[in-house]
Write a structure and sequence with these properties.
alpha/beta; Glycerol-3-phosphate (1)-acyltransferase; eight-stranded mixed beta sheet; 8 helices
Length: about 260
């Protein structure tokens, strides 16, 4: 799939339900702020999202997993959350986000776009979140969370996706999305990006990474290195895409679409 598109192929609107994910207790003022801020984020997404034009490389990897009656563990860098949540909106995907105030704002915005949400991080709450994601994979939902989230370091893949893939026997599908014209929040730990209206974007999807259930600690570390390499390659391709010559773009299409 290489043509410019505004939605994933074969979209059928789906909404994943809400799950018992036990977000952190917040003060009444903080709780009151969440729907206001997340509502503004949703409104911005509904305004800008339809104007974006995506070119997609590697979609056949997702089709291949789904054609085997399996689900995907989507993994990506935290920086790309906005572009990712718009592309996969209303697809019944369940996402994990941080249980803190910022994470609950993101979770509320994601729910408005049809995602199911579970809250967790690298703490014990993260283990509970992974358990919820494993259950949702068994029930037929794709799941997603940032490989370097929720607090970084930026562009360093953590072991969460590997542990979930081993437990669920579902493959990791890593990707990167880049918008040609976007505002980068330079002071944010993840260099978060918001696309400008009518921007072109490219979505680069890598081949699935399998993590057999007998994989031990050393094997997890090797698979983690594989995920790191894949996400770096996808980011390099995506971020250079709009500077490439037509001939080089065609060569990259052949590589990623093979």
């Amino acid at each position: 799939m290489t043509e410019l598109a505004k939605s994933p192929p074969g979209r059928k609107e789906q909404r994943a339900g809400a799950y018992d994910s036990r977000p952190k207790h917040l003060s009444p003022l903080r709780r009151a702020q969440i729907p206001i801020i997340s509502g503004a984020a949703y409104a911005f997404a509904r305004m800008v999202g339809p104007t974006l034009r995506y070119e997609v490389l590697g979609w056949q990897h997702i089709d291949r997993v789904h054609n085997q009656n399996r689900r995907c563990v989507y993994s990506f860098w935290h920086q790309t959350i906005f572009l990712a949540m718009w592309w996969w909106r209303y697809r019944g995907v369940v996402a994990m986000t941080s249980a803190n105030f910022d994470g609950q704002i993101l979770g509320s915005a994601l729910e408005r776009l049809g995602f199911g949400i579970t809250y967790g991080s690298s703490s014990r709450g993260g283990l509970r979140g992974l358990s919820v994601l494993a259950t949702q994979l068994e029930q037929g939902h794709d799941v997603a969370f940032a490989a370097d989230g929720p607090r970084g370091p930026r562009y360093i893949a953590k072991s969460g996706p590997l542990i979930l893939a081993r437990r669920s026997r579902c493959p990791i599908v890593g990707f990167h999305i880049f918008a040609e014209h976007a505002h980068t929040f330079e002071k944010a730990w993840d260099l978060f990006q918001l696309p400008r209206p009518f921007s072109r974007a490219v979505l680069v999807i890598g081949p699935p990474i399998e993590v057999p259930d007998e994989t031990g600690r050393d094997g997890i570390e090797r698979k983690q290195a594989d995920l790191q390499c894949l996400l770096e390659r996808a980011r390099d391709t995506a971020e250079s895409w709009f500077r490439l010559s037509p001939a080089e773009q065609e060569r990259q299409r052949a590589i990623w679409n093979s």
